[in-house]
Design a protein that fits this description.
Blueprint: E1 3-10, E2 16-19, H1 21-27, E3 36-43, E4 48-54, H2 59-71, H3 87-97, E5 100-106, E6 109-110, E7 116-122, E8 130-138
Antiparallel strand pairs: 1-8, 2-7, 3-5, 3-8, 4-7, 5-6
């Protein structure tokens, strides 16, 4: 079974959740050749996250960000503050959401549900460009 691996650098995005499904699919041209397999998406950062969630209602990413802000509020008495007041809350949010997702592939397409999309969670005010490692395995 062949393996393919690509790196994708996303432009800086504002704080919040952003659907990146199309960018991920476009970065791995070999995906179209896979009859059955898996796509693994990994983010190489500790203050941003990757998740799968509803991509139809624009309120969903806003509510996700609001809920995480309530859990990891910026005004908590964090000890790690050398990189700014938004850094440690970003690490907490990234730890809660996660750094990777795996999606099944069939007939060259991701088998995401009808309302599912791959999201980048940007948890910093100015996180900068984000690097993803995209690994496909299949036949």
């Amino acid at each position: 079974m062949p393996w393919y691996q690509r790196e994708l650098q996303l432009r800086p995005l504002p704080r919040g959740f952003h659907v990146i499904t199309a960018a991920v699919v476009n970065a791995v041209a070999e995906l179209a050749t896979i009859r059955i397999g898996l796509l693994h998406v990994f983010i190489q950062h500790t203050s941003a996250s990757i998740s799968i969630n509803e991509n139809a209602d624009p309120d969903v990413p806003l509510d996700l960000a609001m809920a995480l802000d309530a859990i990891a509020h910026q005004r908590l008495p964090y000890i790690h503050t050398t990189e700014g007041p938004d850094d440690m809350p970003a690490h907490v949010k990234a730890a809660l959401v996660g750094s990777s997702v795996t999606v099944p592939i069939r007939a060259g397409r991701l088998l995401l549900g009808t309302w599912q999309g791959i999201y980048l969670g940007e948890h910093r005010d100015r996180g900068g460009p984000r690097r993803l490692v995209l690994t496909v395995q299949g036949e």
